[in-house]
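Quick one: C-alpha coordinates for this chain, please?
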Amino acid sequence: MSSDKPEITAEAFEKLAEAAGLTLDPAEKERMREGYIGLQTLLARLPEDPAMADEPALVFQEPSSRVVR
Protein backbone atom coordinates (compact mmCIF):
# COMPACT_ATOMS: atom_id res chain seq x y z
CA MET A 1 0.00 0.00 0.00
CA SER A 2 1.14 3.53 -0.56
CA SER A 3 2.46 5.58 2.32
CA ASP A 4 -0.40 8.12 2.17
CA LYS A 5 -2.98 5.51 3.22
CA PRO A 6 -3.60 4.87 6.90
CA GLU A 7 -2.33 1.53 8.14
CA ILE A 8 -3.56 -0.85 10.81
CA THR A 9 -1.79 -4.09 11.56
CA ALA A 10 -3.67 -7.36 11.38
CA GLU A 11 -3.15 -7.77 15.12
CA ALA A 12 -4.54 -4.32 15.94
CA PHE A 13 -7.55 -4.91 13.69
CA GLU A 14 -8.15 -8.29 15.31
CA LYS A 15 -8.31 -6.56 18.71
CA LEU A 16 -10.85 -4.07 17.33
CA ALA A 17 -12.95 -6.89 15.87
CA GLU A 18 -12.86 -8.79 19.16
CA ALA A 19 -13.84 -5.67 21.10
CA ALA A 20 -16.81 -5.27 18.75
CA GLY A 21 -17.81 -8.88 19.41
CA LEU A 22 -17.13 -10.04 15.85
CA THR A 23 -16.08 -13.62 15.18
CA LEU A 24 -14.48 -13.68 11.75
CA ASP A 25 -12.51 -16.26 9.81
CA PRO A 26 -9.07 -15.17 8.52
CA ALA A 27 -10.36 -14.23 5.04
CA GLU A 28 -13.17 -12.14 6.53
CA LYS A 29 -10.73 -10.40 8.87
CA GLU A 30 -8.51 -9.38 5.98
CA ARG A 31 -11.45 -8.10 3.87
CA MET A 32 -12.80 -6.17 6.86
CA ARG A 33 -9.35 -4.72 7.57
CA GLU A 34 -9.05 -3.55 3.96
CA GLY A 35 -12.48 -1.94 4.25
CA TYR A 36 -11.47 -0.29 7.50
CA ILE A 37 -8.37 1.16 5.84
CA GLY A 38 -10.56 2.46 3.00
CA LEU A 39 -12.95 4.06 5.47
CA GLN A 40 -10.08 5.71 7.34
CA THR A 41 -8.78 7.05 4.00
CA LEU A 42 -12.17 8.62 3.25
CA LEU A 43 -12.48 10.07 6.76
CA ALA A 44 -9.03 11.64 6.43
CA ARG A 45 -10.26 13.55 3.38
CA LEU A 46 -13.05 15.28 5.34
CA PRO A 47 -12.27 18.81 6.48
CA GLU A 48 -11.73 19.04 10.21
CA ASP A 49 -13.49 22.38 10.62
CA PRO A 50 -15.80 23.04 7.66
CA ALA A 51 -17.17 26.54 7.19
CA MET A 52 -20.88 27.16 7.73
CA ALA A 53 -21.18 28.00 4.01
CA ASP A 54 -19.99 24.47 3.16
CA GLU A 55 -23.23 23.01 4.48
CA PRO A 56 -25.93 22.48 1.86
CA ALA A 57 -29.15 24.39 2.34
CA LEU A 58 -32.04 22.21 3.34
CA VAL A 59 -35.07 23.05 1.25
CA PHE A 60 -38.14 20.89 1.38
CA GLN A 61 -41.53 21.31 -0.19
CA GLU A 62 -44.41 19.02 0.52
CA PRO A 63 -45.61 17.27 -2.64
CA SER A 64 -49.08 18.84 -2.26
CA SER A 65 -47.61 22.38 -2.26
CA ARG A 66 -45.76 22.03 -5.55
CA VAL A 67 -47.11 23.94 -8.51
CA VAL A 68 -47.63 21.64 -11.48
CA ARG A 69 -48.18 23.21 -14.87
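The mean pLDDT is 83.
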